[in-house]
Design goal:
Keywords: Phosphoprotein. By secondary structure, the chain is of the alpha/beta class. The protein has one domain: 3-Layer(aba) Sandwich (Rossmann fold). 42% of the residues lie in helices and 20% in strands. The protein has five helices and five strands; from the N terminus they run βαβαβαβαβα. Helix 2 packs parallel to helix 3. The longest helix is centred in the first third of the chain and has 13 residues. The two termini are 24 Å apart.
Amino acid sequence: MKTFLVVDDSSVVRKVARRMLEEWSFEVDEAENGAVALVRCRRQMPDGILLDWNMPELTGVEFLEQLRSEAGGTAPRVVFCSTNNDASHIASALSAGADEYIMKPFDADILREKLVEVGLLEEEPT
């Protein structure tokens, strides 16, 4: 079973994302900020990470830069998730090592599409 870490300081966002991911058969863990997420990743690297931008302790970008320098830290597929769709924000996230970027609020179709794009889910048969 593939593992997923949802990193967001909003418990509502974590709960909504968890529900979607579990429907797609991911084993899901949560972290309320980048510092907690880094500890979880050091314990066991997940296959995928849904990452918020603005959080206490470590921002999403700070977490991602540290993650990518960890042993095995290049493996997780990271989907950044933010309310900011400014081109410079998206460029910063991608240059820090994000694989994809989605806007909040997101729905199951948008998240699923991004997970297919990064190779964590198969396309649904049509």
